[in-house]
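Escalation from tier 1.

The customer reports that the assembly of two entities below gives different C-alpha cells on two consecutive runs. Tier 1 could not reproduce it. I'm attaching the input and our single run for tier 2 to review.
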Amino acid sequence: MKRERKTGLIAQTYMLIIAGIILSGALIYYTQYRIAVRSVWEDTRDNVSQTVADVVDSLEEYPAYTWMFTYWAEHADEMDVEYEAEFDGDSLTERKSRDLLSRYPDYELKYLDEGQIGAMTPEDRKLYAEIMYAWLLRRIDGIKRTFGCSYLYIVITDTDDGENPYERYLFLISGADKDQVRGTEYDQAYVLGVDTEVRAEETKTAMRDAVIGKLEAEDDELVITGEKIDRNSTKYLDYYAALEVKGDKAVLAGVTFYLGDMLDEVRLETLMHTLLAMAYLSALLGILMLFIFAFMLRPLKRVLEEIRTYTGTKDSAKAEEHLTKYLSQPFAYAVRHNEIGQLAEDFIDMTKEIDTYTGEIQRETAARERMEYELETAAKIQASMLPDPCPEFPDHPEIVLSARMLPAKQVGGDFYDYFFLEDGHLVLVIADVSDKGVPAALFMARAKALIRSAAAAGKQPGEILSQVNEQLCENNEKGYFVTVWIAIIDPATGEGTAANAGHEHPVLCRAGGRYELVLYKHDLAVGLMEGMPYRQHTFKLGPGDRLFVYTDGVPEAVDHDKNQFGAERMLETLNADPGAEPKEVLELMETAIETFAAGEERFDDTTMISLWYRGSQSGKEQRQS
Amino acid sequence: MLNITKQADGGKLYIALEGRLDTMTAPELEKVLEENLDGVTELVLDFEKLDYISSAGLRVLLAAHKRMLKQGEMKVIHVGEMIMEIFEVTGFSDILTIGE
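Tier 1 run:
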C-alpha cells in the first residue's frame, strides 16, 4: 500500500513567497513611480513660477517695458536687432548706446520713462528700442540657462479678434542657448516678428485662462496656467503667464520644460528603490521561511517519516521512542508548543490504541482458531465414536447392514449404533438429540454410552429407554432430549423387540414386497420427563426382509423453495429397487436427497441404517456358495 | 408466523395459538407463558388454528406441562389431525391432557 510521497509543502511555500515578492515589487514600483512623477511635476511647477517671476523682475527693472512691448510689436519688421551681442566694448549695441548717450548725455538709458522716450526723435526711439531688446535678450537667455527650460519666450496676442481670439501670436523675444539656436524655423527660438498660428486648443485655453487670471488677480499676483498636456505620457509641459493686458492685446510669457530625461532618471531610481525593497523583503521572508522550515516543515517531515515507518513496521515502541526523543531536544522547544508537537503526541497515543486493538484482535483470532480446531477435533472424535459404517460380520452372515451419519456444518447430535450382545443378539440404535453443536454432541455421547451399558446389562428395549430416561433427566437444566429407536434382534430366528421414544417411523420391506412405514404409537423422547413408561413391541423378520431407519434429516431435507423431501419421496426412492444391498440403499438415498436439495445447505444431520436379514439358513448357504 | 391470543380470568388462563409453533416462534410463546403463569391454576391451550408444531414447540409445551403439574392443571384443546399425529409419534399424547 505504498503511496507516492507528497513533499510539496516546502516548494509550495517557496512559490508562494516568490509570488508574493514579485507582486509586492510590482506594487511598490507602481506607487513609487506615481509619487515620484508627481513630485517631479510639482518641482517643475515651482521652477516655472520662479522662471516667470525672474522674467517679471527683469522686465520691471525697465520703467518703460510696456512701451517696449508695443514698440517691438509695431516695428518688428523695421528693427535692426543684434541677437548674439558680445558686450566687449565694440559690439553694435554698445556703439548704438554710445551714439545715443552722445545726444542725451544726462540720461541713464535703462531708467528712461515713457515721457522721456516720447520726447526723442523717431530714429532715436528706434535706436533705444533696439538697445533695450539686446539687453533684455541677454537677461532672458540667462534665465533660460539658469532654470534649464526648453523654451522661454514672450509673445503678444489678440484677446478679442472677432470670433477667433488667441488664434495667432507674435513672438517678441525668445531665450536661446547652445542647444537651441535662434531662427524662424519650427523648433528654433523664434526671433522678433515671427507670427505663428496657435495650433493646439489647449494652448489657446491656457492663454485665455492666464489673461483672465491676470485681470482678476490682486496685488500683481502671478497666475500661471497650462500643463495642457497629460504629464504621464508626454515629456513636454507648457505654461503661460500674462505679463500685460492692454485693450485687446495681451503680452504673455511662455515656459516649456522638457521632462524626458528626468522621467527616465525617475524610472531608473524607482526601479532601484523597488529592487532594494524586494531584496529587503526577500531577506525578511527568507528569515521567516527559515523559521517556518525549522519549526514547522522539518518537524512535520520528521513526524511524517515516523508515521510512514510505523505504517511499515507497526512498531509503536520505536515510534514513541523516536518522537519523544526528538521532541525532548532543546531546539524542539517551539515544536513542543505548536500543533506539530500535538500531532506527534496524538500519533503516539494512536499507535498505543492500535496496539491494544491489534492485541485484542490477535487474542480473538487465536481464540476463534482454537475453537474451530476444537470443533474439528470434536467432529473427528464424534465420528470415531460411531461404529464402522460398512461392517462385515463373519460370525453372523444372516445380517448385512450399512449405516451412515452425515453431519450438518458443525458437530451434530445424531448417532447410530450397533453391537452384538454376549448372547449373540444384535442391538440396533438410531437417535437424534434435540439440538446441534458441541453441547448436543456431549449429550449424544452420554446417551449413547448409557444405552450401551443398559443393553449390555441384558435389559429389554423398553427397560433400557426407561433407565436412560431417568439418568438423562437428572440435572438436565438445559432441557436437552433425544429421540431413540432401539431394537434387539436374534439373528438366528429373526425375532426382535423394539421401542420407540419419539423417533421417526421405521420402514420395513418384507421379502419380495415393497418398503412401507411401520406406524404405531410412540413414547415420549428420552430426557424430557422423569417417570415415563416406555413400551416395547415384538416383531419377526423373515429371510430377505429389509429394514430402513433414519433421522428427520432424511424426510426434512429441503430444496431451494423450502419444500421438504418428505416420507413419500423417501419410500419411492427405496422402492425404486427394493432388492438393493444395504450399502447401495444408502448411496441411492443420499444421491436422491442431494439431487432434491440441489445444492441447498444441509441444516440438519442426516443418519440412516439399512439392514438386510438374510435368515440363518440362506445366509450360510449363500456364504458357502 | 404465530399469533398468540390470551385471556386471563382469575386463576384461569386461556391461550389460543394461530399459525406455526416452530424454532422461530417458540420463544414468543415461552415468553408469554413465563410472564403469565404466576398464580395460574388452570391453563388452557387452544390449538384449533395451529398448523404445525416442531420439536422446539414441543419443548415449550413440555416445560409448561411440567410447571402446571406443580401448580394446577394444563389442558390442550381442539387438537387437529396433523398435530395429533405429531403428538402420537412423539409420545406427547401420553402425557398431555387433550380435551375436546
